[in-house]
Amino acid sequence: MQGFFDTKIEFLKGVGPQKAALLNKELNIFTYGDLIQYYPFRHEDRTKFYDIKEVNGSMPYIQVKGKVRHYELKGPPRKQRLIVYINDGTGELELVWFKGAQWMLKKIQPGVEYVVFGKPTVFGSKLNLAHPEIEVATQANTAGGYLQPVYSSTDLLRRKYLDSKAISKLIKTLLDSALPKLRETMPAVLLEQYALLDKQNAIANIHFPKNLALLNNAQFRLKFEELFYVQIRLLKLKLTRIDKFRGISFDNADLLNEFYTNHLPFDLTNAQKRVIKEIYKDMRSGKQMNRLLQGDVGSGKTIVAFICLLIAIGSDTQGAIMAPTEILATQHYTGLKEFADKMGLRIALLTGSTKKSERKIIHEYLKSGELHILVGTHALLEEVVQFKKLGLAIVDEQHRFGVAQRSKLWQKNTDVYPHVLVMTATPIPRTLAMTLYGDLDISVIDELPAGRKPIKTVHRYDSNRLKVNSFLKEQIDLGRQVYVVYPLIEESEKLDLKDLMDGYESIARAFPEIPLSIVHGKMKPDAKEWEMQRFVKGETKIMVATTVIEVGVNVPNASVMVIENAERFGLAQLHQLRGRVGRGADQSYCILISGFKLSKEARTRIETMVRTNNGFEIADTDLQLRGPGDLMGTQQSGVLDLLIADLGKDGKILQSARQAAQAVLNDDPNLSEPKNSVIKTQIASMKKTAVNWSRIS
């Protein structure tokens, strides 16, 4: 039946070539299949008619029927508003039109009964409905109530008479012929186990539900199915990888034990120990490891990475760490060199600014196997970088690398694939991790090292600036350093630079004797580096910057982070910036400064930051506020083109769907049994867009 759903949309009655072109361009609807899966984003409750006397200003949307008693036009000719009074015998209600008064006037007739739908508001002491939907009462629209679907449209579509109502009409036309042709896409066993509606009923009731219960059941069924197939594909990739790709088996722990016994500078947290055990188990298994290591800023991922590198080097292979920026790569290198020197291991740094003469030596030592660890940026991916035998590739802040870039690390060995450890300090909510990295094993470092004090976060308005400045002065007198960060919004860099320079000047006026650094994206890399270094060495006490300091700067003495215009930052970014302080033993502070006018979302973001330091809680809130698309640079994943499920809200459904997918594959890994033929057919017919994360992370 697939052919029917591949029919071009222009052949549907009421569409034609011109409307089809608009639907293609504006909504990505090309075929019958696309239209039938264009789901409404909400339903208006038309199941009930209210008596006018029951209506109050706190109701969302209401439907009433009543006769027009009279109407009046008020205001000057160019700003006329139309007020229509309707009565149903229990009371009177005002309907108001501020636009198109003359046009509406032609449609309204006194003494005629109308069905009216809209949102009640209180104006003064009176109730009214502004710009309600209104139509003459007929037997059809007053008989039995129904839930009316509301579809997303665009300004252009609305101008061409393709608003929500028109889209709804097209879908109704299509459903008549389409429903009998829909095949079931879930196996009978799962339909029964999870009490899922069958496909035909689910599609009929997602668009035009008979009642609220059926609408909820239809939504559950379609969300479950969508997430089930995302998980089936990811878990199948994982099985394929485990079967296909041999890994190097590492079972020599001598270096690891020596480091542990003689050189470990501090006790590991229980979370670090647990994660190292999980990774070591993978690396000994003979199967190629693909593991995601999540740990909040400052949770001690670097030492875990070094210990894992020791496992690889102990078995005569090499290790690599790839970071997205030169600053971060340099920081990894500096941090690891101290440990490597103690262990007598050779480590090198390779970035875009490594001198040609140094590069030559690095390439030679790498090829001969004399170089044990190579730390670097994208420069590691170049053809000339050849390892003798790469045992472990570590990718830091992996969402900043494109898919194609990461896959090149895989090609560094000819005979066997290196183990891969992906690290991120951006906490990923469980639901997103299960979808985005569903075929990677996940380890989490969920406690901070001993002696680290939680950062105190406060919110202050612009008007408290003098108090904030005197607090900063106290901190600097105690020998601490301060970051002051200004937002950078790409569309208006000129404006932001002005913000930054104005801010710099006002700080210079407020702290005339204190040396300042300034860093922003428009500076040349060496100038930026020079300013950063002055701050790191403690020559300057206040660093005024844009968000370029978001990732990787480690200054233990910096204990205060001031974020100006905090309302203009996303939650993830606020959390990353806060993580720049709290690196030392002193109590650290984060001060969020904003104007008085805050949107509801901005208020939620700021309240969340003040309430908690837990990165995962913050990531969950962020996911609910923003949705998954822009959270992680996930557009490149191809996994998140979800039609109906919402990872911010459907975490429970996702977990059930993953369990179901896991159970099916445990029982029948190749989906060869007749009971799973439905799944096999569906996977084959789905768009081939799912990116194979396992092979590229």
Automatic annotation (TrEMBL):
Residues 467-629 form the Helicase C-terminal domain. Pfam families: DEAD (PF00270), Helicase_C (PF00271), RecG_dom3_C (PF19833), RecG_wedge (PF17191). The keyword Hydrolase applies. GO terms for molecular function: 3'-5' DNA helicase activity; ATP binding; DNA binding; hydrolase activity. It catalyses: Couples ATP hydrolysis with the unwinding of duplex DNA by translocating in the 3'-5' direction; ATP + H2O = ADP + phosphate + H(+). Its EC number is 5.6.2.4. Keywords: ATP-binding, DNA damage, DNA recombination, DNA repair, DNA-binding, Helicase, Hydrolase, Isomerase, Nucleotide-binding. NCBIfam families: PRK10917.1-3, PRK10917.2-2, recG. Plays a critical role in recombination and DNA repair. Helps process Holliday junction intermediates to mature products by catalyzing branch migration. Has replication fork regression activity, unwinds stalled or blocked replication forks to make a HJ that can be resolved. Has a DNA unwinding activity characteristic of a DNA helicase with 3'-5' polarity. PANTHER family: ATP-DEPENDENT DNA HELICASE HOMOLOG RECG, CHLOROPLASTIC (PTHR47964:SF1). This is ATP-dependent DNA helicase RecG.
